[in-house]
Structures
1.
Amino acid sequence: MSSKRILANDGIDDSGKALLENAGFFVETNKASEGHLIQTLNDGAFDVLFVRSATKVTAAVLDACPGLKLIGRAGVGLDNIDLNAAKSHGIKVINTPAASSQSVAELVLAHLFSGVRYLQDSNYKMRTEGHEKFASLKKKYGSGIELRGKTLGIIGFGRIGQALARMAAGMGMNVIATDPFITEATIKVEIAVNNTSIPVTIKTVPMQDVLMLSDFISLHVPGKVNGKAIIGEHEIAMMKPGIGLVNAARGGVIDEDALLHALDTGKVGFAGLDVFENEPTPRVDLLHHPAISVSPHIGAATAEAQERIGIELAEQAIEFFAA
Ligand code: NAD
């Protein structure tokens, strides 16, 4: 039994907490503010700090807290943790890369379904004008299209890209993907009705093919490349007119100026954005655009993903101290 102490500063799902407590860990979930984090960690003699994206684990925090042995990031991205400082202090950093893939993929589909039927705008307009202008709104949103039979291009064919491919293929979409490090992947299209799955191998294609052949493109890359967006004016110019773009990866992998311009000219038909360049204060013209379906970085925010994340973190922490 471990008697280690964990500060889960951005919370942890109950199932993960229970696993840890059963293994003898003490788990504190009262949040310490940025200004009080160092004092809380030292006064509480914490061995472990768990964070989501909100708490920043800076070099200053790591320098000032010699008792820390393990940092756990509940989620994928490690950009809020100073990895160099952690390494120099011999503090191990763990995360839960696979736990949220399905949830992010489903949110991408939600944005796609929204975009092809104008739901992001009609939800809003029906609320304010639907009782008076029903007929004109019916006409305004009356030229939707179906997803089935269309080509979905996936940029970044890792965990989330493949989870999305699985769902999209199951819906009858054609899926193409590009990834500089993956030449092919076999996805399992699940048919829950009779508890079976169909393996489908997708060979990746050059980026240019995804840009030119897709009706919709979704990005699932780690981030910008050398500080530059992956989709900018040049890439948008190569796309089919009216394309739908989704970004649930990292803010700025689609250039926001280029996107707004292309939406206004009609080159891009709609966009779905879960992430923004300037989080947590995204630009208002993006938020207000009628052809953009927006969500506040909630890709992993489902009960199932949070439960998997909590359990995965707990199991890794238990294993770390058992070693
Ligand atoms: P992953 O590492 O499994 O896959 C990323 C893939 O992108 C890799 O296969 C890599 O080879 C590929 N790649 C790298 N550079 C590329 C490029 N220039 N062009 C094309 N492909 C490239 O990661 P993942 O788990 O699938 O996560 C993908 C992204 O989703 C990350 O940015 C992550 O931070 C983000 N994410 C967002 C949310 C959310 O809440 N919206 C939740 C989880 C993860």
Note: The domain at 5-96+303-322 is CATH 3.40.50.720 (Rossmann fold).
2.
Amino acid sequence: MEPQRSPLLEVKGNIELKRALAKAPSRLPLPGSRLKRGPDQMEEDLEPEKKRTRGLGTKVATSRPRATALTTVPQTQGQTAVPKVPRKTGPRCSAAIATVLKNQKPGPAVPAQKPGTTAAPPVVGRKKPSKRPAWDLKGQLCDLNAELKCCRERTQMLDQENQQLRNQLREAQQQATALGTERRTLEEELARMRAQAEQGQQELGNLSTRVLELEERLGTQEGLVQELQKEQLELQEERRGLAAQLEEQERRLQASEAALSGSQAELASLRQEAAAQADLLAKREERLHGLEMERRRLHNQLQELKGNVRVFCRVRPVLPGESTPPPGFLLFPSGPSGPSDPPTRLSLSRSDERRGTLSGAPAAPTRHDFSFDRVFPPGSGQDEVFEEISMLVQSALDGYPVCIFAYGQTGSGKTFTMEGGPGGDPQVEGLIPRALRHLFSVAQELSGQGWTYSFVASYVEIYNETVRDLLATGTRKGHGGECEIRRAGPGSEELTVTNARYVPVSCEREVEALLHLARQNRAVARTAQNERSSRSHSVFQLQISGEHAGRGLQCAAPLSLVDLAGSERLDPGLALGPGERERLRETQAINSSLSTLGLVIMALSNKESHVPYRNSKLTYLLQNSLGGSAKMLMFVNISPLEENVSESLNSLRFASKVNQCVIGTAQANRK
Ligand code: ADP
Ligand code: MG
């Protein structure tokens, strides 16, 4: 079986075939078109030629002698018969035949007659007619006829042969056409093959690039694999370490489990113990609550025993630059138990220059003795003063309204007592910051017993019967806008001041900020109206709300700290200019509100049916802090100077009246 040839090999075969064809014209005297024919075809084409040549050869073999014979024929005769041969075969044909004969192997001397070939009368070996005598015209004619006949036969034969050659030529041309077509097909195929080859080449190039890429990737992957193997080794090492650790941990765990089971047993017993403790704790809490309620009750009882209306007298020290009063001007006699007792009495001596003796000598000074719940001589510190009132602050936390006033003439130390001295020195801190700090710390302690407290602060001033907010900020700062005192709601006991800020506070810093803001507001106002602060009442109110969620208990009470306006009167002998008239109106308003305060306290003390709260803005605003369940404390601030003796006496008399009051048994505001 012949192996399958590749298209490339086929192309190569075709190319060889073409080369053979190109060589062919040197062998074959065929027309140009025959050059394109294949070698086999050429062989076939050659065959009739051979035949012809052979035929011719025969003829040549026969004609040669005949030609020789013809040479003997006269030129004229020869010219009639011979010219046909070169016409039929032609010099080209003869040359071709000669070439073919030359290229062919020498054949047999006498080629065999091919079957089918028209048997020409054998000329070879025919006996050459002897030369006829000139006279033998008949014989010559006979010869010529014979010659003519021979020539005709030959012509006929040559025609046939010519015809055959034409046929062969046609065939050859057809074959050439077919071969041309085949060649074109082959050329197309060759072009396709070349394109395929090019494509193959390109693909090969791509594949090579891809192979290179893959090799590169392979290299990278191999590197990675090596790294991973290294890592794997490390991990295996680590795993071994961890396994060892795990073993150790498991061992420990077992030990721990053993310990745990022991601990669990212990825990169970501890739980039992804890349950018992919780039980005990609950009982103790219950008892503690009972005790707390008892404490509140007793505390209140104590406060009541001390009096629901208490008056403390405070004498400020002589300030630098002030004239020292004569000795004995102010005396602080000791209590019944001697100097260890806190002073409660004050004695003021007044020498009345108007009263003269008959002899003209000055009258002996008059002594005025006053007794209060407590008297603070000039050397008493702020802490000492606060200690006395801290019990009242505790009452406010327990749900009792508390109201503390500072009463006295301008410059007697009211603001110092309430807010404190200048410079922010903690030693001279006043009652307001101290009271609030105390409240916050006690509320914190009570939170341990389940009490939650909240505090909301407000700070207003009442000047000339108008209320202004001292906590106003922004554009309202200093001017405060006018405020109105209104009931919180229809039928509500609670009072609020419209346009005033109510600020929740929970720490000292917030309170300090509020006091600072109030001072700023007063300072701005002072520029507008001369020393307004001393001509107005400042009311700091703290609404205290407490709740015991566990027991559903609630308590709420206001703590009011009031720095009253200067209690001094106008000198009736003064000439009344426009400024003085204004001052007179201010003073009248102040005096009216202060006397209303006295009247309200008296009415409460005498349990009168009508209490004139509405007669002044101050008493109207404070009515909830002054009622039956309220506790009231009044500081009467006294100047130590002799020149202020008249005002001091007025203040002490007013305070003494208040001190005689007892407001009914206080009831905590419990809900
Ligand atoms: P008021 O408010 O009654 O008009 P102030 O509180 O402004 O009087 O006191 C007047 C001056 O006396 C202030 O300079 C104040 O610092 C000073 N002062 C008042 N009380 C005391 C005191 N107990 N110790 C020291 N200085 C005081
Ligand atoms: Mg003041």
Note: Residues 316-317, 319, 408, 410-416, 421, 534, 637 surround adenosine-5'-diphosphate (ligand 1) (CB under 6 Å).
